[in-house]
Amino acid sequence: MTGLSDSFQRPINYLRISVTDRCNLRCIYCMPPEGIALMSHDDILSYEEIVTLVKAAVELGITRIRLTGGEPLVRAGLPGLVRMIAGIDGVTDLSLTTNGIFLAKYAKDLKDAGLMRVNVSLDTLKPERFRQITRCGDLENTLKGIEAAKEADLTPVKINMVLMAGMNDDEIIDFARKTIDDGWHVRFIEYMPVNGEDINVTRLFSVSEVRKRLESLGPLEPYKMDKGNGPAKYYRLPDAKGTVGFITPVTEHFCYRCNRLRLTADGKLRLCLLREDEIDLREPLRNGASIQELKDIITKATAAKPRGHLLAERNSHKGRPFSQVGG
Ligand code: SAM
Ligand code: SF4
Q1: How many whole angstroms separate alpha carbon 175 and alpha carbon 210?
Q2: Is the preceding peptide bond at 156 cis, omega within 30 degrees of 0?
Q3: Per-residue confidence (pLDDT) for residue 1, from 0 to 100
Q4: Which residues line ligand 2 (CB under 6 A)?
Q5: The CATH number of the domain where 87 resides is what?
Q6: Residue 61 buriedness (CB in 10 A; 0-12 / 13-18 / 19+)
Q7: Nearest bound ligand to CA 96?
Q8: Distance between CA atoms of 287 and 289, rounded to whole angstroms?
């Protein structure tokens, strides 16, 4: 096998980079109301450092890069980072995950800098509920962000909806209708319990239940999405221009085909979202490691990528918050 792979022969070609641990929202499933202790400026990788690590990763066979956070658009000058990464030979897919609040402001600059597409997190279409889930956000801003991303051709714009039983499961049909009426690409994501929450008593709302609810809108026809090759399975409802996607980290884990690594804002290579194994890249980088030395560290770390996460075994997860690891 050419390129990067782990000890289970999974090809690894996708790197998610958390560019900041800061966020302008406090989503109930991601952060405590008071936020989290923030990393210091010195702890965070500079854009130049991120670019050096991306170059090393791309030389090893990484082709797809996603920028995430925290909220990536709260870090100053993000289009500059996009431009540098887009200029690296071998990057074939460059995307961003955002809460969309600042997207209307930056969509065009991001596109001009070389960003290809965005995923926007949106869990409700009700303004009051949006404020409740995000603890402070204004739905209108995210909706404007989605429109701006479409206008800037950051497509396909995918909408990520985290399903929470008793909180937003009554909006499943409304989101699905958006795929018919407005051509949205909506992905239903199972809530992942965090901070040691008991997996058996969480807000988990399974994707299989979503499928049952969607039956009232007609049969789901499997659909092959051109861009992106992640964990989602895509379908189309009758007469829909858009798609529905299902992501099942809890009820039907996809670890066996996991193709990703993560880079935290403080420069740790994270081997799995839901396991704490991390390898420090920041110190070697700051101590002058060559690209070849960084490649050696990444290769060795990747070989140790764990087979799967604990939720798959119905154990709870306790560790760094997703806002630090990139979700
Ligand atoms: N701030 C950006 C955003 O919200 O899109 C990017 C970072 S956020 C940590 C990345 C993704 O993780 C979001 O789509 C969010 O919905 C998801 N996420 C965070 N906590 C989650 C949880 N407990 N279960 C499922 N998804 C979660
Ligand atoms: Fe911020 Fe994204 Fe976490 Fe919400 S999910 S608190 S927007 S990092």
Answers
A1: 11
A2: yes
A3: 46
A4: 23, 25-27, 30-31, 69-71, 99, 121, 323
A5: 3.20.20.70
A6: middle
A7: 1
A8: 6
Q: Of the candidates 79, 87, 88, which has an alpha carbon nearest to the alpha carbon of residue 118?
A: 79
Nearest to 95 by CA among 229, 207, 233: 229
pLDDT tens by residue, 217-235: 999 999 998 766 678 999 9
Domain assignment present for 202: yes
CA of 18 to the centre of ligand 2 (A): 12
What is the distance in A from the centroid of ligand 2 to the CA of 30?
6
161 forms beta bridges with 188
Residue 106 lies in a domain: yes
Six-digit token pair at 213?
Answer: 């609810």
Q: Which two tokens stand for residue 236?
A: 């189309």
Return the H-helix or E-strand segment holding 262.
Answer: strand 260-263
Q: Which domain holds residue 267?
A: 14-325
Q: Give the count of domains, the chain.
A: 1
| Closest-lying ligand 1 atom to the alpha carbon of residue 325 | 9
pTM for this prediction: 0.95
Ligand lying nearest the CA atom of residue 194: 1
Q: Is the CB of 57 under 6 A from ligand 1?
A: no
- List the chain residues with pLDDT less than 70: 1-2, 195-202, 227-229, 310-318
Does 30 sit in the ligand 1 pocket, CB within 6 Å?
yes
Predicted confidence at residue 230, as pLDDT, reads 79
Is 7 among the domain residues?
Answer: no
121 CA from centroid of ligand 1 (Å): 7
Distance, in Å, from the CA atom of 327 to the CA atom of 312, rounded to the nearest integer, reads 17
Helix locations, the chain, DSSP H: 47-60, 78-86, 103-113, 127-134, 139-151, 172-181, 207-214, 282-286, 291-303, 322-325
Whole-number Å distance between alpha carbons of 107 and 125: 21
In a domain, 2, yes or no: no
Residue nearest to atom 14 of ligand 1 (CA): 121
Strand, coil or helix: 119: strand
